[in-house]
Amino acid sequence: MQGNWPEGLKKRLEDKRDELTSRLARVTANVRRSLDSDSEERAKQLADSEVVDALGNEARIELGKISDALARMESGEYGLCKECGLQIAEKRIEAYPYADECIDCAELDEEIRARP
Predict the structure, then answer these.
(1) What is the mean pLDDT of residues 93-114?
(2) Mean pLDDT computed over every residue of the chain
(3) Is 109 a domain residue?
């Protein structure tokens, strides 16, 4: 592992960030396009815009996770659990490169959130 992350992971995250930024720009342009004056076509375009906007929101969330992971790489905190401070398993990092918690802390957080 390089630093606290597998070799090549930082580049993959940067490439994914660039891809999502480009996709988000296209989504934003699509949502902002002018609507047709025909009411039936306009309704279809509005429905399409909602789907496109939802995709944009997903891209924004993923971009945030990528930015956080890259910031942790820069600060030397990447690969360390933000809750307990222990090393996050390499297999978890490979499967979920945005992971900021070890599996035990992540499962505990899920259990807490699932409680009524």
Answers:
(1) 93
(2) 83
(3) yes
DSSP code string of 43-94:
HHHHHHHHHHHHHHHHHHHHHHHHHHHHHHHHHT-TTB-TTT-PBPPHHHHH
2 within some domain: no
Enclosing domain of residue 99: 9-114
How far apart CA 22 and CA 74 sit, in angstroms, is 23
Please indicate, yes or no, if residue 4 is contained in any of the structural domains: no
pTM recorded for the entire structure: 0.71
pLDDT tens-digit map of 4-18: 577 889 999 999 999
Domains of the chain: total: 1
SS3 2: strand
Residue 27: CB partners within 8 Å, gap ≥ 6?
52, 53, 55, 56, 59
- Write the CA distances from 88 to 2, 15, 49, 80, integer angstroms: 14, 23, 39, 6
Q: For residue 59, tell me if it sits in a domain.
A: yes
